[in-house]
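Sharing a chain and its predicted structure for anyone who wants a worked example. Both blocks are below, sequence first, tokens second.
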Amino acid sequence: MGLMIRDQRSGRNPGRRGAPTRGAVRVTPPAPRSWPRLGMPSLQGLRGSGRRLQQLLWPLLLVVLGMGLYELVDRLQPLAQRPVSVINVEGDLQYIDRASVQAALAPYQQKSLVTIDLDALRADLLAMPWVAGASVRRVWPDQLVINLDEHLPVARWGDDALLNNNGRAFTPEQIDSFQGLPLLNGPERAKKRVMQNYQQFNRLLRPHGHEVARLEMRDRGSWFLTTRGGIEMLLGRDDVLDKMQRFLTIDRLMLAERRELIARVDLRYSNGMAVAWREPATVNGE
């Protein structure tokens, strides 16, 4: 907005165009007020201050940390030296003897939780005949938790050992109570294969009223099977499952009513089989 001043003596407006009026007063507007400028610290200065602060704080922080660790070690040392007082043994155990487990754990009971050798303890547990798997873990401050897995006996292997369902042999001190299990035999390297064939044969035979009592893989790879009904089967080396299917088909069609009279079945033929009877008999298709 403009500023206008009238001369009271002449009554004229000095703002109009023309020659200046005599006695007019010229007014100069005031200069703008200047405010003091506030200084801001430079970025480089801040960085320099931050570095100096870090240089001062790091030694102090390290001292505090060292004192804290010393105090922690001092408090935990008595607990670390405390002997193991509780050992929990977990697992669905049927055959593992409690006294055998206690004997295996005895050398470790006076050791502290920190110094106890878990790998050595686990190895001692796995050396027990019935233990198929073992895990050991620490529970602070003075407990051990042990989980044991037992072998599941499925069959006998030879005269002195048992086989679990994975074809793994183990040798308990007494196996007399397992004489009812099927007897499997074969080369030592073939345990898993014998177990696999045993399981496959049983799956085929059981729906038809048969069950494996004995299975043997002989040196040249031929298979010999005996059912619980006393029927001996010579299966040869190749295509043994197909041969078993062939026997079951003929058994269902022709032999089911006379099973008790069958002594031996020879399935080593490519397209048939031979039957040996317990007493003389004539059977069509023999």
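Comments welcome. The longest strand covers residues 131-139.
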